[in-house]
Specification:
about 170 residues; mainly alpha; 10 helices; about 80% helix; globular
């Protein structure tokens, strides 16, 4: 008996939660295929993004990038700005893992703009931290500090540690 896409998606989520990333990737890919056959592009795109994240966790960045490619456009066509931003973030994470830093930065910035537009402060802070990490890898300390300051400012209820970092980052050497 063949499983329905939503059943495959649930199994994929359980496998992912149990850190069985290869299994999760396979299940999300099958769920996407099922949704695509049913002409449900939106759910297929969601599964493609889940597939991408599982592949990235399984150290397969090129496959992760391929899985998430174009999903941002599907979310845009359905006016789902938050998922579009998440798709950009997933693509950026794969590009980062592939050491394609300039491309990753561009997509992290697009994701941050969309998260800001939707009032998703924590998600915006997360992608800005990822962008700051790239700047550090590139040796761009000043830009990294500015990115980090921006990410700390995006957090709705900063911890004591985050407030301390924000204070320190205000002072330029």
């Amino acid at each position: 008996m063949e499983k329905e896409p939503h059943q495959l998606a649930e199994e994929g989520k359980r496998a992912f939660a149990a850190a069985r990333y290869a299994e999760a990737a396979h299940l999300f890919e099958e769920a996407s295929r099922g949704y695509t056959l049913g002409r449900d592009r939106l759910h297929a795109a969601e599964m493609d993004n889940n597939h991408s994240v599982a592949l990235l966790k399984n150290n397969q960045p090129q496959q992760a990038l391929d899985a998430a490619a174009g999903t941002d456009q599907i979310f845009e066509s359905h006016a789902d700005v938050t998922k579009q931003a998440m798709a950009f973030g997933n693509q950026a994470a794969a590009l980062d893992a592939l050491k394609r830093y300039d491309e990753a930065l561009m997509l992290y910035e697009r994701a941050a703009e969309l998260f800001d537009k939707m009032g998703e402060k924590d998600m915006r802070a997360l992608v800005l931290k990822s962008a700051a990490a790239i700047r550090l890898k590139q040796g761009k300390l000043s830009e990294a500090g500015m990115e980090m300051l921006g990410s700390l400012g995006a957090v709705e209820k900063p911890s004591l540690w985050q407030r301390f970092l924000k204070f320190l980052l205000r002072f330029k050497p």
